[in-house]
Each structure stands twice: as C-alpha cells, then as structure tokens.
Amino acid sequence: MKPLKERLLTEDWMATFVSLPLLLLSAFATKLPIIPKVPDTLATMDAWLHIGIFFIIALVVLFIGNKALNRPIKGILYSFIVVFALALTAQFVANVGIIKEYGFEAVFFSVILGLIIGNLFTIPQWMKPAIQGEFFIKVGVVCLGATILFRDVMKSGTMGLFQAIIVVATVWFFAFFISKLLKVDERTAMTLSSGVSICGVSACITAAGVAETDSKKLSYITSMVLIIVVPMIYLMPWLARLIVPHLTDDPMIQQEIAGAWIGGTIDTTSGVTASSGLYSDAAQSVAVIVKATQNVLIGVVAFFIALYLSTKNNSTSKGKPSFGIVWEKFPKFIIGFVLASAVFSLLQGYEVFPDFAEKKIAAVGMAKSLSTFFFSLAFVCIGLDTKLKDIISRENRNVLFSFLCAQTFNIVFTFVIAYLLFGIVKPMIA
Fold it and tell me: Where are the domains of the chain?
C-alpha cells in the first residue's frame, strides 16, 4: 500500500482540499466586507475590486495545486493572466442582455475563445503552467456541491421528486443505450446521458470528471447542449400551449403540467427560467423547482458512474472487485461535492445562514459564482488544448445524433410523466 502522504497527493484530493477554504468563505458570505461576483461593467473601481478578488482566489488555488502536485510553477503568473483574461471575457459576453436571455452560459464562450486562440496560434511553453483544465473542473464541481440543497427536493413535493427520479433514470439509460448503439465510446456516452437527463452543463462536467471523459469530447457535448437549448426555450412553451389545454380544463393544473414538462426537458437552469416564464409565472415556479430537484441527482448519478467504472475496470479473477480497489479508483472530489451539499443543506435547514429565509441565500450565491468561474477557467484550458478538426470528426457526428435522439425521447417521455403526476395523480390526492 502507498504511504498516506502519497495517496493524498493526487489531483482529486488536492482539488477537494483547496476547495475547503472557498466553501468556508461562501458559508460566511454575509460576514464578508464584500461578496465577489462577476461585474457587468469595467467602468467602476468596485467592478475591478471584484475582478481582483476572483483573480487572487483562483491564482492561489492554482499555485497551491501545482506546488503540491509537483507541476511547473515558473511563469505561472503570466500564464494565468492570459487564461484568466479569456475566462473573464467569456463571463462578460455571457452577461450581455440578449445573450443571457437566450440561455447561453459562460462556459460556451470560454470554449469558443480557447478554440480561437488555440487554433490560430501555437501555444507557447510559458503558457502551459496555468492550462490545468481537469484541476479547475474538479474545484468547480466541489464548489457546485454547496449549491445543491436538499430543501429544493422538499419544496418540489412528492410529485416533483417522483418525476425527477423517474425521468432522470429512464432518460439516462435511454441516452446511454442510443449512444452505444451509434458506437459512441462508453465514457462519452455517460457524459452525454448525464447532460440530457439531469441539467446540461453542470451534469456533463461532473460526469466527465468522474468518467475521465476526453476533454475534447466534453467541450463538444457542452457546446452542443448550449446551442440546442436556444430553440427549445421557444419550442417548449409553444408545444405546451398547443397540447396541454386538450388534457384538462383547469388552468392551474395546465400550468403545473406545462411547468413540470419544461423544467424536466430543457438542459440549463437559465433556459428553464426563460422558457417557462414565456408560458406563465405559475408554470415558471413549478419548472424551476422541478429543475432544482433534478439537479440534486447530479451527485447520485456521479456516484453510480464511478462505482460502475471502478467495478468494471478492476475486477478480480472471480469477477468481483474488492472494496479497496473500488476506493482507490473512486474520484475523491465527488466526496467533496457530496459533503459540501450535505453540510450546506444542514446549515440552511437549521437556519444557521443569516438569510435562510431568502430564495437565494448569499452563501449559495457565492459558491455558485466560484463554481461558474472555475468552470470558465477549465473550458478556456480545454479550448486551448483542442483542435477544431477533432470537433468536426465523424465520431462526433454520432455524438450529435445520439444527443438529438435522446432529447427527443426526453421531450416525449417527460410530457407523459408530467401529465400523469401533475395532471392525474396530484389532483386525485388533493
């Protein structure tokens, strides 16, 4: 057995360890003199203060990670300035009014900017120390755990929880089956299935980190998710208005069915909010809660993916893996994700957070900002390391066909479940 120090000096554990101070800062966000967030403008000193805080936090995290893992440190400042500037640009672009309205997220523009720079220019050696895509992803995933609160499950009630479990499980396995049928490799299929069935980008990133999906495939899948969500924002409320009124005459039930349908099919939270708002305010409330409930299942799916891969790739001669081998291969940053979710849920549940009654508590808001920014850094790095010819390969066409088939099934199946639960079962119980 390896010495304890050697076992702890892995990227998974380091990503978890360096995330702990970030989670602690988030937990006491209301006690801080300033809660950092990506500003909408560069015209004020306050905006530059926020940018400076993000820069220092991310640079310290990267420096500690590289130092502990014996990775290059020389020139890390100059390298990180470039990566940070590209990630910040992506954040600003994503915050532009019309772009934000369409549901595009910062990670999409991070990939695009990285691809442009990486394909137009040769990446010099001095830029390599800060190009740590997988490390940034793992830090972002741990911070993401603090935004997944158990209260969201409770708010959705029994129907929302049942829908989330049924839809996520069924759509995930269908997407995985279709992907394998079209000869998509197993790890990419797992990432795609998680993105379609749960919540788009965050689920893709988490599943890819667990399955060790090729970063080029991950960037392709997330870009595809964010592009396809745009027409769906307008398609789903149109379909709901066309179909749902034929199922029931009760306006309230109509809105609940429409909200549950939209919340269960659109792959980004921002897209769900925009799309359901086009239907009605009541539908939007249901849709957002249903989406949040599905988000909670990210950790569950990630755990089973990790368990499956550990079992499959490390079986003994009798075909049964030992616990020790499964533990050795299990991605440790998922433990950080789950613990962050559990601790923040308990703190919120026991009203430890000063603003526990608010819809969006400050602690979760700061954790979300940190998670989003580390994802942007990660996808800039992925873009810098990716060649466009890999994106348009024949194999990726099969990924696209798999995604479209799975999303079509998702729309039909989620409609059936939303109608059964919110249109038949819930009114009967009431």
Answer: 4-429
